[in-house]
Structures are given as C-alpha cells and as structure tokens.
Design goal:
Helices cover 43% and strands 16% of the residues. It is α+β, with helices and mostly antiparallel strands. It has a six-stranded mixed sheet with strand order 3-4-5-2-1-6, sandwiched between helices. It is built from seven helices and six strands, in the order H-E-E-E-E-E-E-H-H-H-H-H-H. It folds into two domains: 127 residues, Beta Polymerase, domain 2 (2-Layer Sandwich); 129 residues, Nucleotidyltransferases  domain 2 (Four Helix Bundle (Hemerythrin (Met), subunit A), Up-down Bundle). It is elongated, with a radius of gyration of 25 Å. A hairpin with a 3-residue loop joins strand 3 and strand 4.
C-alpha cells in the first residue's frame, strides 16, 4: 500500500480547486488553519482544512454524501458531524492524505464564527463572501463549557464503573471487568484534556506536549488482565482520578476510599480462595 510522504498538500489543494471551481454551485473555496498561515511549518502530518460555501439548497450535493471526493483518490475512512449551520466531513484517503471539509450555504455564511489564525480564499464567485472575509475577525476556539452538573455526572459515572468493574471481577466476568477498567483509564484522559483546555484557554492544540507528562503517569494503571491485575488498575485509576478532580474543582471531595476498601476486600477474598485450592 502506497503511503503519501513529503509535502503532498499543495498538489491536493490544486486538485480541489480544479474539481470544485467549474461547479457554479460552489460559491467559494476557503483554506484555513495551518496551511493558510505562512508562519507555520507544515509536514506530512499536516491535514488540509477548507470551507466550501455552496448555493442555498445544494448542500446535499456535498454533505453527507462523500461521492464527490472520488476524483481525489480512494477514500479509506471518514468522520462526519453537523451543526445548525454547517456539515463537516473529515476524510482520510488510503495513502493517508487528509482533508477536513466544512460545508455551509451562502446565506448562512454571514452567521459563521471564524476560528484560527489564518484564512485564504482559494477562489470565490460571491461578493458577499469576499466582503465578509475582508472584515472577518478570527478568534481562538473557545474552551467547551462544562457545567457543575456535567462534571458531577462524570464523577458519579466514574465511581459507579469502578464499583461495577470490581464486582465483575468477583463474578469471574473478566471481559466486562476489563472493558469497564479501560473506560476508567479513558475517563482520566478526558478529564486531563478538560484541565489542559482550561489552562491554555482553548480546545485547539496543533501540538500536544503538555499532556505527555500525564500519560507517563498512566503507566501505573497498566497491569495484566487477571483478576488481581484488573483490581490493581481500578485502584490506581481511582487514585489518579481523585487527584485530577480535585484540580478541576476546589470543592471536590475525594471519593476513592469506599471503592478502595471494596477492592481490598476483593483482593483478600481472592487470596483466601487461592489458599483454599
């Protein structure tokens, strides 16, 4: 399988223009993100971010269908989402070229908020869009708001999964116990992402780095998928989650101790059973 290496983005941008510009229902093609910023170094891993503005009533020609992408290569996988104004397709081709396309109707374009440091019009046949782009103010993507109720729901779900994982171990259902334990580790990652976003003031991170120290801490949560190993993972994840939750909310009360007592009892039971064998 061929993997696209080197700087492939310029060629794909030219192909996008050639594909879309002849279509009168494409009102504008706008490049955004790192490729539109002359001060950002791009590499093989840089994807292409574009906004495709279409004539009102023709959005369905491009979203959610992906057939229009066929001239650009063989599609490997994609992700799609939508909002009140836009539809988004994040496409990955078999050679690992990646294009993120945001689709919006021309009449909705004035309502769109622009995030990012740079934007570049690749072509436009709309004076309305040209005028908006000339006056547009670009801002950093905001941090998603997490209410106290949402945080409490997240916390409660974590401790319930910890309790259930422990019970499943003692019922010899290691499949579900392992599934729940991996979810606990995932929950610690989600909470760390929330903490990072809040500290940096944005949910947009072109480079990671800051979260890598936390990932090193996750080593303590990894154990063999045996009854005792799973219990160790639940225990260590709960200690880590308690520490993170305390950083998120000054009013948070640590909640791991009942679960740790339950885990300790489970370990003692397993030890006793093994001694009896």
């Amino acid at each position: 399988m061929h993997i696209q290496k080197g700087l492939w983005q310029k060629e794909v941008i030219s192909a996008l223009i050639a594909l879309l510009q002849p279509n009168e229902d494409v009102r504008a093609l706008i490049l955004k993100g790192s490729l539109a910023n002359l001060h950002v170094q791009i590499d093989t891993w840089s994807d292409i971010d574009v906004i495709i503005v279409v004539t009102d009533g023709f959005l369905s020609s491009f979203f959610p269908t992906t057939s229009w992408l066929a001239p650009l290569g063989e599609l490997y996988t994609f992700s799609q989402s939508s909002s009140e104004l836009t539809g988004t397709t994040r496409a990955c081709f078999t050679d690992f070229r990646r294009i993120d396309c945001v689709f919006i109707q021309e009449s909705d374009f004035p309502k769109q908020t622009f995030y990012g440091e740079a934007i570049q019009s690749l072509f436009s046949r709309s004076p309305l869009i040209d005028d908006i782009l000339a006056k547009a103010i670009f801002t950093v993507p905001p941090v998603p708001v997490v209410s106290s109720e949402q945080f409490e729901d997240m916390v409660n779900a974590f401790w319930f999964k910890g309790m259930l994982a422990t019970s499943k171990v003692m019922r010899n259902d290691l499949l579900i116990a392992t599934h729940l334990t991996l979810e606990l580790i995932q929950d610690t990652c989600v909470l760390e992402m929330m903490l990072r976003d809040r500290e940096l003031g944005t949910s947009h991170h072109r480079e990671g780095g800051m979260g890598n120290t936390f990932i090193a801490q996750l080593n303590v949560t990894h154990s063999s998928y045996t009854p005792l190993g799973i219990l160790e993972s639940v225990e260590r994840s709960s200690i880590l989650f308690d520490s993170q939750a305390s950083r998120w909310s000054a009013g948070y009360q640590e909640r791991r101790y009942p679960l740790l007592a339950w885990i300790n009892y489970a370990k003692e039971t397993i030890a006793f059973q093994q001694h009896q064998e």
